[in-house]
Specification:
Blueprint: H1 7-56, H2 63-83, E1 88-94, H3 96-107, E2 115-121, E3 124-130, H4 137-151, H5 158-171, H6 176-182
Parallel strand pairs: 1-3
Antiparallel strand pairs: 2-3
Helix pairs in contact: 2-4, 4-5
């Protein structure tokens, strides 16, 4: 004869197994949770590392940045060619009001100069270019060359004009005529 267990007995016999399974499930759940936390922590660390790398990495250069970099190199080459590597040069743009004030103070001229050169010693000088020429790179470059030649001791003359033209042709071979015409 086959004995059939009552439903109550079945539940009673099953209950301990479910409690064991429940503990197993809880421990697995904790294990899974801690693995998830580890993965999250790893992701956070990787993110932090990449963020630090991005911070230390130079920013992506835009077209303007590239032009500025090239300009600085060519301006430095011209400065070294005209005045020499040991010459200490300070360069800046100044507002029209400031250029007018300085022109009046040092040259006794009552107008806003486009460029001013100040030789401070034999191996040191300053160049100020009017800020209104800042956006026109070619014209700024021409004024920079003009000032360098003044700092080297040249006065306004045909020789100075020839030197300016020679340098402009070397660094702006395609555009130098237009730049010179604008000035």
């Amino acid at each position: 004869m086959i004995e059939v267990k009552k439903k109550e007995n079945f539940n009673e016999t099953f209950q301990p197994k479910s409690q064991v399974f429940g503990q197993f499930a809880k421990s697995k759940k904790l294990e899974i949770q801690s693995q998830a936390e580890i993965k999250t922590e790893e992701k956070r660390r990787r993110f932090e590392k990449s963020r630090l790398r991005q911070k230390n990495r130079p920013s992506k250069k835009t077209g303007k940045d590239r032009i500025k970099r090239v300009m600085k190199k060519s301006w430095l080459k011209v400065k070294n060619r005209v005045l020499g590597k040991k010459y200490d040069l300070s360069f800046s743009y100044a507002e029209s009001d400031e250029m007018n004030r300085l022109n009046k103070l040092y040259r006794k001229k009552n107008y806003s100069a486009n460029v001013l050169s100040f030789p401070l010693s034999e191996n040191e000088g300053e160049i100020l270019i009017n800020k209104k020429y800042q956006k026109n790179g070619g014209l700024s470059f021409y004024l920079f060359i003009h000032s360098l030649l003044h700092l080297s001791g040249l006065k306004h003359s045909q020789k100075m004009d020839e030197k300016e033209l020679e340098i402009m042709q070397k660094f702006y071979p395609k555009k130098y005529k237009k730049i010179m015409a604008d000035f």
